[in-house]
Amino acid sequence: MKKIMIDMDNVICEAGFLNVVNEFLGTNYKFEEIKVHYVQKLIPDERKQEWIEFFKGSNPYDNTVLIKDAYEVIEKLNKKYDVYVATSFIFEDDRIICENLIRDKIEYLHKNLPFIRSEQYIFIHNKELLNCEIKIDDSLSNLSGNAELKILFPAYHNRNVEKEELKTKGVVKVNGWKEIESILL
Q: Is the entire prediction scored with pTM above 0.85?
């Protein structure tokens, strides 16, 4: 069976990190207003340490929602392909946060995608190292490396990627999980 790498944040689920940032800042940011990839970049430098301590006591996956059609399509893909959820856990500011994120991600995946076994989780920052036939991610940089098919999932931070750049990098941009289903199933 062919191997598929599926990113977690902003591909399988969304909103958790933004909700924690909004809670910390007392704001109500919406995805369409954000121009950075990592929403924690919205935290002012002078509040970074305060943010780290706040985040240590938070679980962004408490308020994370599955993206429309993700459950159904991934469940079908899991029957036809070797599916792996490849997700980053790196939080540059603090090692303890990284450990907490791994635990939080595992708990979220167990609860929300019970058909994906723990052996199908890959915690990695540099996804270029992964050898698989199909990659699905919301970040162009995570689609680098070898793969027969590279699929860019729509997200707030990649909405302005030019068609020429996609073509140059051999990437197909989709509109959601139903389009992925039509391509792969």
A: yes
